[in-house]
Design a protein that fits this description.
63% helix, two-stranded antiparallel ribbon, four-stranded antiparallel beta sheet
Length: 307
Amino acid sequence: MVVILSAVQGFFDNYGDPRTKDWFLMSSPLPTLCICAAYVFTVKVAGPRLMANRKPMELRNVLIVYNLFQVLFSSWLFYECMMGGWWGEYSLRCQPVDYTNKPSTIRMVNICWWYYFSKFTEFMDTIFFVLRKKDRHISTLHVIHHGVMPMSVWFGVKFTPGGHSTFFGLLNTFVHIIMYAYYMLAALGPNVQKYLWWKKYLTSLQMIQFLAIMIHAFQLLFIDCNYPKAFVWWIGMHAVMFFFLFKEFYKQQYSKSSKQKVSNEKKMTANGVSQLPNGYSKQSDYYINGNGLSRPDLVHRATAGAH
């Protein structure tokens, strides 16, 4: 085992970009892998157990500040990515990695690392779901999306920080500006929420993003470009996976059958209480309280004559 680990580490040292070799978390993939594993364990096991007998936390102000931070952070990442190459210097058709130490090149390398770091800050999306007991939102899609991204971006920063693959980060940060702006507005309460009719278009935007990344990546399979084919497949298949995951999510959330199911559930609900066939009742999945937040209620209560 020691021999294998030494060989793997030797591969990273010999073939990794020397400019990022000694940067924080970049010497080995193990720290990133461990952080991602800890994230999955926390949001799927430890967190729900911790909150099982506790009331959902009211985090309205925290969510507003957090989402504002993400809007500003994503805006800065997008701007730096543009200034680092995509505003005129980079080519959409073929952009090899520049391994020199030119100021503009180092600027792009730096922003690649900060984009990698941003994936850890996004873990808080799920942590807040856990603390607010919104377990329905902690879907397989959500956990895979957040859990895989840091490890995926780590390889990019390690071997190809810059060039063709940064198109992924460019589009992703742009989408996140809009996405976190939506979440921030939603956290402001019902007076603002009534204007957020465009929620489903966020999912459409995500799918368009991954479709564009697929086309941009896979075009290099048909043209001569000095860019590693392994990373073409890595980025392209990554986009394919997330495209179909988001497509399935869209289908489940916004198809006619799903809307009909929601409509039927609403008809069964009166004064916030849904009647269940086993003689029990429960409060609706959410209600709007005094501060405008939605909060799930997982407490089942016996009806008056049940026991």
